[in-house]
Amino acid sequence: MHRPGRRAVVHTAKGYLKVVRPGRAEAVAAGSRVGTRLADGAGLGSATVLATTGDTVRFAALPGIPVQRLSADPAWPAVWDAWADAWTTWQTLPAPDLPEHGPGHEAEVLRTWARRADAVGVLAGTPWADRLERTAAALETSPRMRTVPAHRDLHDGQVLWDGERLALIDLDTVCRAEPALDLANLEAHARLRRAQGLWSGRAARVVGQAVDRVAGAGGVEEDRMALMRRATLARLAAVYAFRPRWRETALAWADEEWCRGLGG
User: Fold this and answer.
1) What are phi and psi of 67, to 5 degrees?
2) C-alpha angle 202/203/208, rounded to 5°?
3) Residue 1 has pLDDT above 50, yes or no
């Protein structure tokens, strides 16, 4: 996996090597170690940090494959039952020293993607620049909510299953955020996978039901889920605008979701 100018992940004989911007490795390793403690507390696996340099972090290999590739497996419902149990626990774990990611921070994420898209014109001629800004403004004026431990980029590519246990990767982004942030992101990715033809409608619904279960257990208010769904749709529209293979599919999906009310 390669994100030009930001990071790359290389599979080696000794695990995985994450290459980051110079000077960022220690922060990535520190966040990952905190994430590992949280994962342990929720009964989830995670990749152990083995070593760092100024611009690399070496992780041990994890068993399992991304759940993104398992939607046709007979164990699919059991996988998401296990995730719902684990995530309900994850969101109750004490983590007072984690950095906070509030609505204002998420607004800046949207504006960052809007600037990137504007710089190369990938959203030109679409309503997404305006939607990104309107959603960012709505986030900024929304109330601060209680915060819980959050992955901050939770989706099907970040969750592994080895047949018995779930594990998480890319835990260096852990923070404290409102519960709806991770839940809306995971749910939106499931719906996108259906639009991409990667998952069946049934598979996507199983994930949605698991998300609803965790939201109910955590007392997440529907208006917060709605706002975070809206933010996730706007962000994914910008992110996938940079991916030629999926650009048209993702933008059509996001527009349909937005117009039928899931985007606000």
Assistant:
1) -65, -20
2) 90
3) no
CB 160 within 8 A of CB 67: yes
In a domain, 107, yes or no: yes
**Best CA proximity match to 57, nearest among 171, 174, 176:** 171
pTM for the full model? 0.94
CATH number of the CATH domain containing 105: 3.90.1200.10
Look at the chain and report how many structural domains it folds into.
1
Give me the amino acid identity at 243: R
Residue 77 structural domain: 64-262
Burial grade of 145 (CB within 10 A; 0-12, 13-18, 19 or more): middle
In this predicted model, what pLDDT tens digit does every residue of 102-160 receive, in sequence order? Answer: 999 999 999 999 999 999 999 999 999 999 999 999 999 999 999 999 999 999 999 99
Strand (E) or helix (H) holding 109: helix 103-120
What interhelical angle do 180-196 and 247-257 show, nearest 10?
120
Residue linked to tokens 């409608």: 201
The answer to whether residue 103 sits within a structural domain is: yes
Specify burial of residue 177 (Cβ count, 10 A radius: 0-12, 13-18, 19+). buried
